[in-house]
Design goal:
3 domains; six-stranded mixed sheet; 561 residues; Aminopeptidase; disordered C terminus; 15 strands; 20% strand; Serine Threonine Protein Phosphatase 5, Tetratricopeptide repeat; alpha/beta; binds zinc ion; Immunoglobulin-like
């Protein structure tokens, strides 16, 4: 009944009518020859003006999204099916993603929020409501001048219960310990965590919620004669009580760190580094945290400098192992990351009590032994027991240990129990919706956060060994599918894929994430729970890594340790 009422309300909504009227513009019917001429002229124009072509494609994609929405509104039966809403939302979102600062971006963001709000009225799920609020909030943050601003604010008020009629509805109870932050309306810096080696530093600022931030390198050059200083300014923030001071270790790149008030409602984080070769600052969602990665100037490593210089050349692609071979870069140290752990169990298996965190640890430990025995390489586990590690800590371990490869082990999950097979990922924009959903699950965040991340991903990947990662993924996936004992049956090859995983962000070596099998599939879950199959998977991954290593550095197997 509620659904029907909503359908009526929706079809009569003046806002919806306005939007529909503005885009339902059909092209007049033209004589065929004239049409052809127009099309030809247009194609020539597009060739001559690629940016105009891009703009046109975006406008066309937006019109298509509107048409899909219009069709959805005309079909009450389809409106009852969640998938149609999601497809429509995806169309609007892709318009935004194609040009996040373009002229259609605020329109597309608003429509994405609007559709989630409408979907929430049908589904009643808090996730849909949160998505709507988040998209409205993003619209307000990124486009303060947008004509949709007041509608977005109103939408947030209605959905979060700030509106009078909805007061208290679906609102999370405020905990006492947070009230201090809320009354001051400043966002607390809850923790500052540091990892530092002589050449690399990662600093993570955990915030109570999202805040605007800015960063810069001290422009005057060196501080105190020999250090370089990096600032991160957090607006509308205050310092939490549990912030621990940084204790520098001998030889670390990070020499000193300080968190201090910066005016009445801001916080400044000051990082004094021995040197700064390059750095990047990015944020992750749920909980909101800001990650600062700094790589110091390499010392006595001419080949490394040359390698990074080569990588930065625009348009440079690394031919099959050629660059690595040329520079004689071997693989000596591999960091293996068993997914999840401790309070984060990962996906639950088809069988009661089978958890992703335990299966990944078993496989990773076996893999570490094989890497040491077969490849003669050093293998380091990010965790060797049932302990919790944040995703950013895992990458920090790989970077501070100067690992040559980083391999994160996971088991897949799907609402359809029949889903099965293996797939291997490397860091990039997501290639399909399944990859987005998987990344959202592995990142313990929402699909919206994934699209947020994609906005900044190209910037983040400047120093990533993307082409090497793709090749490593190819070897491992190939072995995962073909190097198996026939007694276990064929493994479905779900291929090498791309997605933005938090755990791979900022890794400075070739890095992959392997989804070894579906823990939600009855057959694969049973097998994953046996030592023999865990051994089998570890063997396959080790074989894939070995082939990659031999390819980039044929003598490494002979050289051994
Ligand atoms: Zn996982």
């Amino acid at each position: 009944m509620g659904t029907r009422r909503w359908l009526l309300a929706c079809s009569r909504s003046p806002q919806t009518s306005m939007m529909l009227n503005s885009y339902v513009k059909r092209c007049p019917v033209l004589p065929v020859r004239r049409k052809c001429l127009l099309v030809f002229s247009f194609l020539v124009m597009l060739t001559l003006h690629p940016s105009r072509s891009h703009g046109y494609q975006i406008q066309r994609a937006y019109r298509n999204a509107q048409t899909s929405f219009e069709q959805l509104l005309e079909d009450p039966e389809r409106q009852e099916v969640r998938r149609y809403w999601i497809e429509c939302i995806r169309e609007f979102r892709s318009v935004y993603m194609a040009q996040p600062k373009g002229p259609m971006a605020d329109d597309a963001l608003f429509m994405t929020a609007h559709l989630f709000a409408k979907l929430y009225e049908i589904s009643g799920t808090s996730q849909d409501r949160q998505e709507a609020v988040d998209y409205c909030q993003r619209l307000l943050n990124r486009f303060p001048e947008s004509e949709y601003g007041s509608k977005a604010s109103q939408c947030i008020a209605e959905l979060t219960g700030d509106g009078r009629e909805n007061a208290g509805r679906n609102r999370a109870p405020a905990e006492n310990k947070n009230s201090r932050v809320q009354t001051g309306s400043l966002v607390e810096v809850k923790a500052v965590r540091f990892w530092s080696s002589p050449t690399y530093t990662r600093v993570v600022l955990n915030m109570a919620s999202e805040v605007p931030y800015a960063y810069k390198l001290w422009e005057e050059g060196e501080v105190d004669g020999e250090l370089e200083r990096l600032f991160i300014d957090l607006d509308h923030a205050c310092i939490g009580e549990r912030i621990k001071p940084y204790v520098p270790s001998a030889g670390a790149l990070l020499q000193n760190a300080c968190v201090a008030p910066h005016g009445p409602d801001a916080v400044r984080v000051i990082l004094d580094m021995k040197s700064v070769h390059h750095y990047k600052v990015f944020s992750l969602a749920n909980p909101f945290r800001i990650v600062v990665d700094v790589r110091g100037v390499p010392v006595k490593k001419a080949s490394k400098i040359r390698y990074e210089h080569e990588q930065k050349k625009p348009g440079t692609t690394v031919p099959r192992g050629a660059l690595a071979k040329q520079l004689a870069l071997g693989v000596n140290r591999i960091v293996i990351d068993p997914g999840h752990g401790g309070k984060d169990p990962g996906a639950s298996g088809y069988l009661n009590g089978v958890l992703e965190k335990n299966v990944t640890l078993e496989i990773a430990q076996r893999l570490a032994r094989k890497i040491q025995e077969q490849l003669g390489c050093e293998a380091i586990l990010t965790r060797d027991g049932d302990t919790y590690l944040s995703l950013e800590e895992r990458t920090a371990i790989a970077n501070t240990k100067n690992a040559d490869l980083f391999v994160s082990i996971h088991t897949n999950a799907h609402i359809k129990m029949a889903s099965h097979g293996a797939e291997t990922y490397f860091l990039n924009l997501a290639t399909d919706e399944d990859a987005i959903l998987l990344a959202a699950r592995e990142n313990a965040t929402s699909a919206k956060s994934i699209s947020d991340l994609e906005d900044i991903l190209s910037e983040l990947m400047k120093n990533a060994k993307q082409e090497e990662s793709r090749r490593l993924a190819g070897y491992v996936q190939e072995a995962m599918v073909n190097e198996r004992n026939p007694q276990y049956g064929r493994v479905k090859d779900k291929g090498v894929k791309e997605a933005p995983f938090y755990v791979l962000l900022g890794a400075e070596m070739p890095c992959i994430l392997v989804e070894v099998a579906f823990i939600t599939n009855p057959g694969e879950c049973r097998k994953l729970n046996t030592a023999a199959y865990q051994e089998e998977i570890a063997n396959a991954i080790a074989t894939g890594i070995q082939r990659y290593v031999e390819d980039i550095h044929p003598t490494v197997a002979e050289v051994g340790i």
